[in-house]
Design a protein that fits this description.
Length: about 140
């Protein structure tokens, strides 16, 4: 009887560790350096895929492309403009602002991604992003 309880307890502990590891793996592998934001080609549901690292203001994502990284190559070589599925602002102490229109125009839609946050984009910004900028540092 005691052996069954020990085996059962071991199984429960193993299941808890496996469950925790599964949850932790939901976040993307980190491609960005400090003071960068990553835009991902896919959302978490599709494993994020290729990324684009941004460290400054970009008034128009035309001519900028996703590249293969730690989360795979899905979307590599595709334009960042109107193709982002997720945004990761873990590498910067500043808010990141993503805009539907070029030139930081929020007349249709825009979103703020706080430092330390990873979000899947939803309508109207999912696959409809044209510009992005970093705000002032929140450290200090």
């Amino acid at each position: 009887m005691r052996a069954r309880k020990t085996v059962a307890a071991g199984f429960v502990a193993f299941a808890a560790v496996v469950g925790a590891a599964g949850t932790a793996s939901a976040a993307p592998a980190y491609d960005c350096l400090f003071d960068e934001v990553c835009l991902y080609y896919n959302s978490s549901s599709y494993g994020y895929g290729a990324y684009f690292a941004q460290s400054g203001n970009i008034p128009d994502y035309s001519g900028r492309y996703f590249k293969a990284g730690a989360n795979g190559s899905s979307g590599a070589g595709i334009s960042v403009k109107n193709n982002a599925g997720a945004v990761d602002n873990r590498g910067t102490p500043r808010n990141f602002y993503l805009y539907y229109n070029s030139n930081y125009d929020c007349s249709v839609a825009c979103i703020t991604v706080a430092p330390g946050h990873l979000i899947n984009l939803s309508e109207p910004l999912k696959n409809d992003n044209a510009s992005g900028k970093l705000g002032a540092s929140q450290v200090g």
